[in-house]
Amino acid sequence: MTIKPLIILPDSVLRQISRPVETVDADVLRLADDMLDTMYDAPGIGLAAIQIGVARRVLVIDVAKEGEEKQPLVFINPEILASGSELSVYEEGCLSIPDYYAEVERPAAVTIRYIDRDGKQQTTEADGLLATCLQHEIDHLNGTLFIDHISKLKREMVIRKFTKTAKMRGSKAI
């Protein structure tokens, strides 16, 4: 298992739409394990494969509280089947947009279908932080960032700030 470098805003890779995984094989499982290592090292509670430059529909999540035993979850080809009508607001952050946080309103509960590590199709219902995290990471698979859910003015300010920083580093812009 390997800790991979994170793709940081404004890198255009973050806007790519990830392609489905055809078969859960050793490469996909290795990718998931590398993603978990990278997420824990960052540290974060969720990571989509595109955030390490791999345009595959794989995401990992662990919403265990600090001090609790790790509860790593792997979702392959996740899709939202249904969203609850009740909304909730969480202050979201992103490993690809370091040190920036904003309140985002999303459905409080979702039902998702995905493939697990064993290659079996699963359906699960999630609410609270897990529902928010799933929606955030699935957005990544579709080339959407959490800043796309905030006001245009705030989003443009964040993009400008990260673009300026990237120019100093010599990165690709969105």
TrEMBL record:
Binding-site residues for Fe cation, renumbered to this chain: 94, 136, 140
Cross-referenced SUPFAM superfamilies: Peptide deformylase (SSF56420)
BP GO terms, sorted: translation
InterPro entries reported in the protein's UniProt record: Peptide_deformylase, Peptide_deformylase_sf
Coiled coil: none
Function: Removes the formyl group from the N-terminal Met of newly synthesized proteins. Requires at least a dipeptide for an efficient rate of reaction. N-terminal L-methionine is a prerequisite for activity but the enzyme has broad specificity at other positions.
PANTHER family in the cross-refs: PEPTIDE DEFORMYLASE
Protein's name according to its UniProt entry: Peptide deformylase
Species: Pararhizobium antarcticum
